[in-house]
Amino acid sequence: GSNAALLNAPHEIIRVGDIVDQVAGRNVPSEGGFDEVARWIRACHDPQGVTLRLVRRTPPTKRTPGAPVLPTVATASTVAPAIADLDVSKLPSDADRSLRDAWSLEETRRPKFYDSERGLEELLAMWRDPSRQSDQLRSILVSHACKLARSYGMQNEPNRIQALLDRLPRYDTLLVGQEAKFCNNIMCAFIQCKQPVRAIEAFATLEPTGCANVECYTTLIKALSKRRDLEGALGVLKRLRDAGLQPNIQTYNALIAACVACRNLRRARSLFGEMLYDKVQPNVVSWNIILNWHASHGPEKLKNSVAAYEDMVASGVRPNHVTFTTLMKASCGDGNMTQAENVLTMMREHRLDPDVWSFTQLIRGFGEQMQWRKALSYFNELRKVATPDAASFAFVIDACARAGQVERAEAMLADMIAHGFEPRAQTYLSILQSCSRKGAVARAYSLIQEMRSRGCTPDGRALATFMNACLVAREEDLALSVYGKMKQFGIPTDTVTLTLLMRAYGQKGETDKAFGVLRSMRRRDASRKPSTVTYNEFILFAVQNGRPSLALSALRMMLRDRKAGNTKVGVDRNTFAALTSTCLIGERGYRHLHFLMDAMRTLREHDVRPNGQLYAALLFTCLQINEEDLGGLIVAEQGKFSVAPRDRARVRDLEFRLGRKLSVERP
Is it the case that residue 588 has pLDDT exceeding 70? Predict the structure, then answer.
């Protein structure tokens, strides 16, 4: 028939809409109904091959022999009526789940690692036959097992790795001469799965046999580094020498990386001297590890990185692409984009053409500095010499989004998808945050929908950003609805989400509900406790909504949390800005003055000096309600306030106005 080649091929899938005439050269019975045909096809097919899942397309129709077969697309309208009259419970008892799945149109997929595991089984079956055992078969079998272990590691399958480790040593002669290779691959796979303890345990079974090689000891150092066990990693060097082995450059590079991971740069630099003792010369990887440390830590990233680079060149080691990219990283970390561009010139002077990572680092740096035009310029330059990768697109999208260029960011997002890259949640979040700052609710909602359509489920951060867009647009009810959906679907909330919930109630004027959210946050776990921003937001809304008592209660709660050691809480300028956000006159002005005096006393009771903002607000309120005598007393206590340089001009002006008014009243 027309599909004979498809049906005769092993491990193929009979697709929905295929007209089945023959299977394995045998005619399909034309009577007995669809159930009978399905069972017959399964009986004829290789039971170890792919599971067949068949769906009746339409009632059978006659066709002229030799006529061309037109492909038919199964849609909901054509499939649903065809399976509506089928009773799954009446299937024969020997029909397994795969046949029952036929009625629900489930997609056929082989189990993960099906081919590799089946290949390993076939090789092990051959090894069980003593007449077929040979060094060549052993080498092939162990290489296949090592490749499978690495596949497990990349797919984060530690239990499968353990099962493979427990299984192969059952064959006494199987791993002879291949023990180190197999164990090293198992250890690397465990490290990929973030299971360094299992990697260390795997090495412990190998070391007593005396089969461990330098590569195994080097991998052990990497495992101990993951556990931040620097002393254990350094002790491996002695164990390696006791085993009669000589450390190589990879071993020392792993030790240097372990020292850097444990934040012991001095010990890392001392290893360069030990390398000379073992007649091992530091290479570019050794220096790049040190460079990367300086580029990522400390207040003077660029200065220290340049010093390390000069030491590297002086030692006769030629820098490579990673070296210059790391220098760019240090320049961007210090905000010195001029130096970052100079590094690009240095690369060309060393006859190295800038690669994708070099341009990507520049794009990222200019994006963080809000220079989207420069970032876009280097992205276009990258396109002329190489194909941008997903990271390049993501950073140029972030650069445009940070600068508020939402249209350009969306255009780059479409270009990214057109190049075959799937945007990650962080890429969408960058554009969402830009929309959020502008209050573009409709555009933010369309991005949320696009994320879902592309299989990228919006997480708590994305939905919190959408809530903020609603609040900026004064759509408080919509923000509350989004929070309700998050609770309904069990999406975790954090401090930011709950702060936005409190802000929604505050903007609606429902201060009591907002205060209830604040109090409930103090009883939550650390990830949802109120922060400085939370308290500042509530104090602002309480003052603006005419609830000074609640504002003072929130201030006391904030100061108690600070005293209790909550590192997320501290009084800053925004706190004083919230306390002084309203200035009233007349009778209400007197109440506001009392509120400011109470806030000043509360701060002093908790050993916090009021700043120049509160001092200026007190003087201004005294002038508005004609309380010059009280203002004079406050001026007399100026030393108890912490007046910043930015507040001095306003404070002097108010003091001058108050003093002139007092001099007029008291000649």
Answer: no
